[in-house]
Design a protein that fits this description.
Strand content: 5-15%
Number of helices: 5
Radius of gyration: 24 Å
Structural class: alpha+beta
Helix content: 40-55%
Distance between the termini: 58 Å
Strand order of the largest sheet: 1-2
Oligomer: single chain
């Protein structure tokens, strides 16, 4: 009976350990997804804007016109304008190599 239980346990362990290999084919979303769509916002004076900029007190500073906000996904970094592609790759490397969030946002620990 002990031998049968050992064999069954070994088979269950083999099945459980092989399940993790199925995840190896997944691609990180930052490298494969399209850019999100920009939803129109309404400023305090009723104009349409792609984004609204607020100051530290929560007061509206200005609206960003629709054509001025460009979203480029990381998956398009090689096809984007050179300055945008370089900025995306640099930002991705910084995020990937950071060991803590404080390395990405200095003073974050103090704020939190």
């Amino acid at each position: 009976m002990k031998k049968l239980a050992s064999i069954l346990l070994a088979l269950v362990l083999m099945a459980a350990l092989t399940m993790s290999c199925f995840a190896a084919e997944l691609t990180p979303s930052a490298e494969s997804k399209e850019a999100p769509a920009v939803s129109a916002q309404e400023t305090a004076d009723g104009r349409q804007a792609a984004a609204i900029i607020y100051d530290e007190d929560g007061n509206e500073v200005s609206g960003v016109p629709d054509g001025d906000l460009v979203i480029t996904p990381y998956s398009w970094a090689d096809m984007a304008e050179e300055s945008i592609g370089n900025a995306l790759k640099n930002a991705y490397d910084q995020i990937k190599n950071a060991e803590t969030l404080d390395e990405l946002v200095p003073g974050l620990e103090t704020i939190l």
